[in-house]
């Protein structure tokens, strides 16, 4: 089978031919991968900016497919079922896991993610534990199922951010795939006073295709509005860029009682400067979102609600590639010509 594998020690990504994995544990499931997404975290991993396994691993933590075979103890899925894979899990033993916070787990959580620390979906087949599978309803396509993992993270973020009163002034920083998915979610929830700031005009043009009527501007225009428009500010800022200067700019635009949601993943060395006095004066709240604890099933509900009105690859700026075209996909992502790359297998 074909696969894209990354070796942490050498920071090398390679297209390879490897044997099809075999079921060796009773709870394992062999999945024929259909679609596998490239996440911003994957780019950080390949660039040596995000922790991953030092060994050689098939990357890809956002993927969907069809069950090909199951181990003897598996009873929640069967051959032929269409599934999406939740790549995150806890150890089920520590205080964090027993407190309902498996994403804090020092053994599991982001320390054992499928496609980062264990073999993932950038290959023809993937071997995963049965508890990591989410069956897809008939109305959800495999293309949409490949977005279940990022949408499950949005679902966790939405739970943390809610309630957001309709009519709130909301700023979304970054119009990559995560920013566009937040745009979809906010529009679905009835929010109309939304501004999206993105330096890459190509990405803004994709966001425009979503036909939300939102104010789509560049960071230069955002700063100009701040300087020239009286009372210009926001009640909620959602950072989807992980870019520290953008986060600082968003923080400065929060009005009294405002909330900053740090959703984009910044590199480990990234820092921002915060004025504690301004936090006090405005009673600003800052929080971050870490993956998807118990929110994967909610993501399927969101996918059903969003439907093709929003989850259309051509509207979201998603382009499909073969695994052999991985370098082209990475290059287009790095220069912002597309919002997301997805491999079709």
Automatic annotation (TrEMBL):
Q: Which PANTHER family match?
A: L-THREONINE 3-DEHYDROGENASE
Which residues span the membrane? none
What Pfam families does the annotation carry? Answer: ADH_N, ADH_zinc_N
Q: Which family does it belong to?
A: Belongs to the zinc-containing alcohol dehydrogenase family.
Q: Which residues form the signal peptide?
A: none
Molecular function in Gene Ontology: oxidoreductase activity; zinc ion binding
Which residue intervals define the domain Enoyl reductase (ER) in the entry? 8-343
Official protein name in the record: D-arabinitol dehydrogenase 1-like
- Does Metal-binding show up as a keyword for this record? yes
Its lineage opens with: Eukaryota, Metazoa, Ecdysozoa, Arthropoda, Hexapoda
Keywords assigned: Metal-binding, Oxidoreductase, Zinc
The protein's required cofactors: Zn(2+)
